[in-house]
Every structure is written in C-alpha cells, then in structure tokens.
Amino acid sequence: MSKQMSLWGAGCIAVAIAISTGCSNAADQGSSGAERTDQPSATPAAATAIAAPATVVPTPSATAAPAVKSVSLIPEVREYSGSGRGYELDGVNVQADYSADQTLPLGLFLPETMIRFEQDGRTAWGTADKHNYITLIKLSSENGTTGGKFEPGTDRRLLKFKEYEGSREDGDRRVETFIFTAYKDTYRAEIHIQDEQRDKLLPLFTSMLSGMEYMEKHPPIKPGVFFKVPDVGPSPGNKQALQETLDCIAAWAAGDKEKFAATMYSPLLNDNLQYLLDHKNVYRFHKLTVVGIPVEGAKRAAFFVEFTQMTSEGYITDSNNEISLLLNKQGEWKIASID
Can you tell me the distance from the alpha carbon of 23 to that of 25, in angstroms, rounded to the nearest whole number? Predict the structure, then answer.
C-alpha cells in the first residue's frame, strides 16, 4: 500500500475515534475513484477537523436586495439638452416632457398623466388630485434651510439608495427624503406619498428623480423680427417673394395663425407647419439671408432665416431654417416649405 493510502487510512481511524463510526465507508470512497482533482492528501489532523460541525455560509441569492446605501439614485445631474422621455405606467408607455422647477435650476420629466403645481411655496410634480407628489428644496446653512431630521426609513426599496435620508409622517402621507448635489449645490428631494398609492407610484417617483436634469435660469427673450431686411433688387417678383417671406416670419413670431396661413402654398402645408405656432415657444428672428430668387438651377426661391427659440420651460436654443417658395397659379411666390 502506498504512503498516500496509509495516511488516508490513519485519517479514517482518527475520524472513527472522534465520531464512533467505522472507516469502511471512507476507505471505500478513497478507493472508488471519486473525483478529487488537485486536492492534497489528508493528514490525520485535517481528517479530525472534518468531524467538527461545519459553518454554513449562505450563498447570496440572485434576487437578494442590494445592501443599504449601495446604489446611487441620482448619480449625476446632467444639463438638459432639449430631449424628452417616456415611462411605463400600468403596462402603457406614457410620454414625459421636461418640467422645470419655477425657482430652482432643476427639472423633472413629467408624465403627461401628471401635473405641475405649487405646494407650500415650492414647485410640485404629481397626481392630478395633488395628494402624491415630489418637491425639491435647496439646502443652505446661510438662510437656515438645512437637511432637517427624519426617522430612519424601513422601505427596502429606498434603503439601498446612497442619497436616502429617511422619512417622516405628514398627515395621511409619508415623506421620503433624499439629499443630493447638483452643480456644487446641495438639495433635498421629497416624495410625498399615500400608503395606498405607494406600490404604484414609488417606482415612478424614484425614476423621475433619477432622471432629473439641470437647466440654468434665463430672463425671457423678446419675441419678434429684429434683422435688417436684405436687398433683393428692383424686380417686382423678387420684392414679392421677399415680402411673402417677411409676412410669414412676422406671423410665426406673433403666433398669428390667420396671417401665417395666408402665406402658405397650400392648406395641407399650413396644417403640417402648425407646430411652429405652438404658444409654448417664443421666437426672436435676428438674420435673414437670400439664397436665391429663384435658386440657381431650380424653380423655387429660398431664404435662410436664423433665430433664437425659448420654450415655456425656459430652454433656449439658437436655430435656423431654410424657407422655400414656389409660384402658384396666379404667379405669386408662396411658402412651400420650412426646414
């Protein structure tokens, strides 16, 4: 018998002494060919240790809840870029548009099924009945606004978030609070939620907070036409094309649907361009350039217009469009496209 098998037999004897059982089964296992890849031979001491009660280390479940404060709810507050997004509510995709706080440089993407309103002097976003909502507040030791004290939360869905501060009662609601930083300033977000709405709305409200974006506040822009009218020469046709374009731009800036429609080549085109007259946007036109009357090698005339646009949420962009015109049956230039 080899030295290895001798040691194994000695181990069996040690085990037998410790637990009052024979070593025949162990010997059978040692000679049965059971796989023990790259395992060293057992020593008597090691074999004796096998008899001690084993410490069971639980294997983490794939569905186990994350550890407390292990996940960031608001990892980074990005600058708003003019985009929108959507949420899934009760299995239905719902469009959400950026909705700015009326005093702070922050905003949430608000589902079209919810509203923005004022609550206790703050901007609130929530349900139409105003019973469940989110508010934000800037924290500052200078003005006496601090984080405040809240009870430790117990909802496992919130405990995992690093920003979670705790909760407190507020009438028939609980207020769940989160402390976060955006562009070097510290804020507190509060979710005011009724117990009966918690399972339905809490995932949505945390998603809204996670998608929060920053937008610097700007004074309103003055709408209108503020450019020097370009020279198109003495041709009556050129002057008519220019005037039609000026009338279109003036109606666009004023949101005047009737005057805007009068410049269009067709009613269908007028219908397709109604989005430009959306009163949620303000336009300031500051440059008009002649592309051609007509454009070389084409039957259309064209102008290039540049403008600044401000949405009702305060988002400002500089943009431009080419306005093309075609001659109608009466021989007049009419707006054929704005792209």
Answer: 6
Element (H, E) at 30: helix 24-31
* Number of neighbouring beta carbons within 10 Å of residue 14: 21
Two tokens, residue 216? 């610097």
DSSP 181-193: EETTEEEEEEEEE
What stretches in the chain show pLDDT beneath 70? 1-66, 141-148
pLDDT of residue 109: 97
d(CA 312, CA 198): 31
**Separation between Cα atoms, residue 264 and residue 290, nearest integer Å:** 19
Q: How many CA atoms lie within 13 A of 5 on its CB side?
A: 9
**What is the pTM (predicted TM-score) of this model?**
0.72
Output the CA–CA distances (angstroms, integers) from residue 229 to 30, 180, 226, 305, in the order listed: 100, 50, 9, 11
Task: List the beta bridge partners of residue 110.
Answer: 97
Site of tokens 């059982």: 21
C-beta neighbour count of 45 within 10 angstroms = 9
Residue with tokens 């280390």: 57
Among candidate residues 89, 85, 86, the one with its CA nearest the CA of residue 203? 89
> CB under 8 Å to 177, separation ≥6 — which residues?
148, 150, 164, 165, 166, 167, 168, 188, 189, 190, 191
Distance CA 282, CA 104 (A): 21
Instruction: Give the model confidence (pLDDT) of 254-274 as tens digits.
Output: 999 999 999 999 999 999 999
Please, what is the average pLDDT of the chain? 83
Do the strands 164-170 and 213-214 form a parallel or antiparallel pair, or are they unpaired? unpaired
Report d(CA 245, CA 70) in Å as an integer. 59
Which helix (H) or strand (E) element contains residue 176?
strand 173-182
Convert the pLDDT of each residue in 183-234 to its tens digit: 999 999 999 999 999 999 999 999 999 999 999 999 999 999 999 999 999 9
Give the span between the Cα atoms of 333 and 146, in whole angstroms. 63
CA dist., res. 187 & res. 207, Å (int): 17
Sign of CA dihedral 310, 315, 321, 325: negative
